[in-house]
Design a protein that fits this description.
Order of helices and strands: HHEEEH
Distance between the termini: 59 Å
Number of helices: 3
Number of strands: 3
Radius of gyration: 17 Å
Shape: extended
Strand content: 15-25%
Largest sheet: 3 strands, antiparallel
Structural class: alpha+beta
Helix content: 25-40%
Strand order of the largest sheet: 1-2-3
Length: about 80
């Protein structure tokens, strides 16, 4: 395998997010004891293997787009 051609993917976790994953590990882990994590621009999620129910774990940082939207909303709030 040529690791030079692999684009790394990153996920950031806070300590609280890791605690939540540990707390719910047995419920969301599959029969082999593996917890799958889904990472989207909306945050980090785990999925219960049988029902496919998802639990929001959190978001370590806001995206730049989220920050800009919050700033716009705050500015609009002060205009009125």
């Amino acid at each position: 395998m040529n690791f030079k051609n692999i684009t790394p993917q990153y996920a950031e976790f806070t300590q609280d997010m890791l605690r939540t994953m540990i707390e719910y590990f047995d419920y969301f882990a599959d029969v082999e004891g593996v917890l799958s994590v889904e990472v989207t621009e909306l945050g980090v999620w785990v999925e219960e293997p049988t029902t496919k129910a998802k639990k929001f774990i959190g978001m370590a940082r806001y995206s730049q787009r989220d920050i800009e939207n919050m700033r716009r909303a705050q500015a609009d709030k002060h205009k009125h």
